[in-house]
Amino acid sequence: MTFAAKYRAIKTDNYALAIVPKVILPTGETADVNKLIDVAPGAGVWDLGLSVVQSYQFDGRFSLVQSVGYTTQLATYRAKRIPFDAIITTTPDVDDSTRVQLGDMYGGQIGPKYKVTELFTVGGALALQYKAPDVYTGSKFDSSHYDLMSMNTEQVMFSGQLGINFSTVPLYMKKTFEVPLEATLGYANVFSGRNVNTTELYSAALSMFF
Asked: pTM (2 decimals)?
């Protein structure tokens, strides 16, 4: 679950710049250390992020949008199985107070948007994202064993995206609709990367503004 704010710092006839801080809550279920295979949706950490979004308007319908962002993942303490070998990861060694510092994330994207109607917009983008290596530390076992958990956790991903957006914000600004909200359907294809799955991704999002 993500809470975000948007501050429009610059606005002219054909250019706009907004600053977007965000907080991501650890609401997803985390992996159970007592299950041999448990791919959980959550990491159990709080994230703090900041991005800058720029929009260049070429006419009433066509625009070019660019964004750059940074997200830091706050450290937490969790139960982890600590490997003693780089190949054999099944281990009886459990540290209930492993310090988990997931890598910070950096990224940016650029792409066109076309306003089909007042409420519907379609667009695409090319995106590049980087995540720094994770760091695990503890005092129960040898420090080199914790270092093994950080192997292959650095990530780089280059992808393309397509999306369609429905927004009532223009009607809200005209005071003809009571609730400002946005719904988005997206498709992404990972072209290349390091330590990421090169696969197709589908997404849906609903945003409400207060």
From this structure: 0.80
